[in-house]
Write a sequence for this structure.
């Protein structure tokens, strides 16, 4: 993984140098820069010096366009910006993004200075600020898009390359393992991990998250396996996976059900190599599901339901072939449907409650699902076993739940500060600055 600050530092250290000068690392030029046009050689060399994966890059600028499968439209510090790509492997120019501000960027590129210079006298030059929009023209060359190193960009402490981030879920795949995701100010997905000793730096995974549903949704189906989903600005669902050694190259576009989503995605894993992801329809009359069992299924509907506007479904699984889904209905009660491995239960069941926000579901064992929701002050949200609903009375002054057995489901007192604000952390569009987010993450309790 490459640090954007290091990429910028290396690029800046070579400003003014020609293709045959001694580079900042003490060598001569940048690969084949003494022999032929060398903008791609320079960009590749900078990435390589910063520790990025440069496999697949060549002296051709077009190799950056095909490097990860697609070009993005959102620039990040440390990206390569590609100009004049023809869609068939050829591009006019490539440079390194060194500054991103509002709707403009600055870049540093090799083999620049034309038409006043020749191949022998062309040099490394900084350009900008200029428009970051795809299609905008810089010195006669239109921007075709941006690409990050395949293995991501680490955002290191001490240098701020994002101005703020949004709180997003945390998942685990084993003891002493935490994996946190956030949406940056430029709407890309960022990630960091806890290994039992310390937090890693932030890794920029790219992508452009919808501002309407600005929540990435991660799920872990086994040790060293992560998957994360988000709704993009084009109203399609996007997916990227971690396979144990590195993130998959680029984001998979999973499309949509034929109409734009009406919620952020929610995802669960029933078993190893098994994924189920759900989104609400745009008119809140159905929930759509797509599944992975070695390959992606098509979109399927969970059946007709009228849910409350703005409601996001909650999903849990308590075993292979078992799924439970809850959502707030139009009548402001919680609706439930279950999957038994072959079919969904007949219609949606009304299970009561009077939630002010979306429910959340968890399972601690076979046939055990617990629903959590926030109720109005004078009522406690009902606790849901798979087939029955019980009320536990009003909370005490500190709004904790009294310990109680509910037919084998053990409900314990919620300690202050634990399991707090589940809805707001998962779905609220509140934005927090990076420093505030890092303070919230802190060091996990052991």
């Amino acid at each position: 993984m490459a640090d954007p600050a290091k990429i910028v530092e290396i690029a800046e250290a070579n400003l003014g140098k020609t293709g045959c000068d001694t580079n900042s690392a003490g060598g001569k030029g940048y690969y084949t820069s003494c022999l032929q046009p060398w903008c791609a050689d320079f960009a590749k060399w900078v990435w390589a010096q910063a520790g990025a994966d440069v496999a697949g890059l060549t002296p051709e600028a077009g190799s950056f366009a095909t490097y990860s499968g697609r070009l993005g439209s959102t620039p990040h510090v440390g990206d390569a910006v590609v100009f004049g790509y023809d869609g068939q492997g050829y591009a006019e120019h490539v440079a390194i993004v060194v500054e991103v501000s509002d709707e403009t960027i600055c870049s540093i590129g090799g083999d620049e200075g034309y038409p006043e210079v020749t191949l022998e006298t062309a040099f490394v030059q900084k350009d900008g600020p200029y428009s970051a929009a795809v299609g905008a023209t810089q010195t006669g060359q239109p921007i075709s898009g941006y690409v990050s190193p395949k293995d991501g960009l680490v955002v290191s402490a001490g240098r701020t390359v994002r101005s703020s981030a949004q709180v997003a879920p945390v998942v685990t795949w084993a003891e002493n393992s935490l994996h946190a995701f956030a949406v940056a100010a430029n709407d890309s997905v960022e990630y960091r991990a806890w290994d039992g000793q310390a937090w890693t730096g932030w890794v920029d995974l790219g992508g452009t998250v919808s501002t309407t549903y600005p929540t990435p949704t991660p799920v872990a189906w086994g040790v060293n396996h992560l998957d994360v989903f988000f709704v993009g600005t084009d109203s399609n669902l996007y997916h990227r996976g971690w396979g144990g050694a590195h993130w998959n190259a680029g984001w998979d576009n999973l499309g949509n059900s034929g109409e734009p989503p009406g919620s952020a995605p929610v995802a669960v894993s029933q078993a190893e190599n098994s994924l189920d992801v759900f989104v609400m329809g745009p008119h809140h009359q159905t929930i759509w599901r797509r599944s992975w069992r070695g390959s992606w299924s098509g979109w399927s509907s969970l059946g007709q339901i009228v849910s409350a506007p703005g409601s996001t479904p909650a999903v849990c699984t308590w075993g292979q072939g078992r799924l439970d889904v809850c959502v707030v209905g139009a009548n402001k009660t919680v609706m439930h449907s279950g999957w038994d491995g072959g079919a969904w239960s007949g219609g949606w069941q009304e299970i009561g409650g009077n939630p002010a926000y979306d429910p959340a579901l968890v399972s601690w064992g076979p046939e055990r699902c617990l629903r959590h929701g926030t109720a109005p002050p004078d009522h406690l949200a009902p606790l849901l076993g798979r087939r029955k609903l019980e009320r536990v009375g009003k909370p005490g002054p500190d709004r904790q739940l009294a310990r109680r057995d509910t037919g084998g489901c053990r409900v314990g007192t919620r300690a202050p500060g634990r399991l707090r604000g589940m809805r707001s952390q998962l779905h609220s569009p509140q934005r927090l600055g990076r420093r505030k987010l890092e303070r919230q993450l802190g060091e996990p309790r052991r």
Summary: The CA atoms of residues 164 and 436 lie 9 Å apart. The first helix runs from residue 4 to 13. The first strand starts at residue 80 and ends at 83. The domain at 4-147 is CATH 3.90.1720 (endopeptidase fold (from Nostoc punctiforme)).
